[in-house]
């Protein structure tokens, strides 16, 4: 039974991150004809497109993907807590899972960009290009305050430090943050 719970929670968590990444790519105005972007769009489309027809929303921010990610987060709570009954507190805990998932997504995209920039050595591919488009809007304000010194860009370390601080603030002040 624990293996089944692990598989279901892993699939749901990955899908939440894919939906959030889809929205983030639209906000960052990434190249949607890129092969990596097309992969994210094709994975998220089977669930998102029927809801787009129902809600008939055509704004620049993909609220339908965020809404579906929130619903999946709410459905994930009783699975993680191994509960059979549904309670109203799950709506709050679903929001906690969604916020924490976005922070984790930012963390791993930053780490991915750092690793690919070390190993690509000038050969850019689809993933490098998307990671660059996703992270540059976040890192540019940090680079204005702390410019690269001696060929070392400290913006990645500062951003990861900020994410860690936000995580510790969440643990201390947001009920349920630590458990998800």
From TrEMBL:
Keywords: Membrane, Transmembrane, Transmembrane helix. One of its GO terms (cellular component) is membrane. The chain crosses the membrane at residues 6-25, 61-84, 90-111, 152-174. It comes from the Bacteria. Pfam families: CCB3_YggT. This is Uncharacterized protein YggT.
């Amino acid at each position: 039974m624990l293996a089944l719970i692990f598989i279901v929670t892993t699939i749901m968590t990955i899908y939440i991150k894919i939906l959030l990444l889809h929205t983030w790519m639209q906000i960052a105005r990434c190249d949607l004809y890129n092969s990596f972007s097309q992969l994210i769009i094709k994975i998220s489309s089977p669930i998102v497109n029927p809801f787009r027809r129902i809600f008939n929303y055509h704004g620049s921010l993909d609220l339908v993907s965020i809404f579906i990610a929130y619903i999946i987060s709410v459905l994930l709570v009783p699975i993680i807590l191994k509960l059979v009954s549904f309670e109203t507190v799950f709506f709050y805990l679903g929001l906690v899972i969604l916020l924490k998932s976005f922070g984790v997504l930012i963390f791993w995209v930053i780490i991915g960009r750092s690793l690919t920039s070390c190993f690509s050595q000038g050969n850019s591919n689809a993933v490098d290009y998307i990671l660059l488009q996703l992270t540059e809007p976040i890192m540019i304000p940090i680079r204005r305050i702390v410019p690269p010194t001696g060929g070392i860009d400290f913006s990645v370390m500062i951003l990861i430090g900020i994410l860690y601080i936000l995580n510790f603030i969440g643990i201390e002040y947001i009920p349920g943050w630590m458990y998800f």
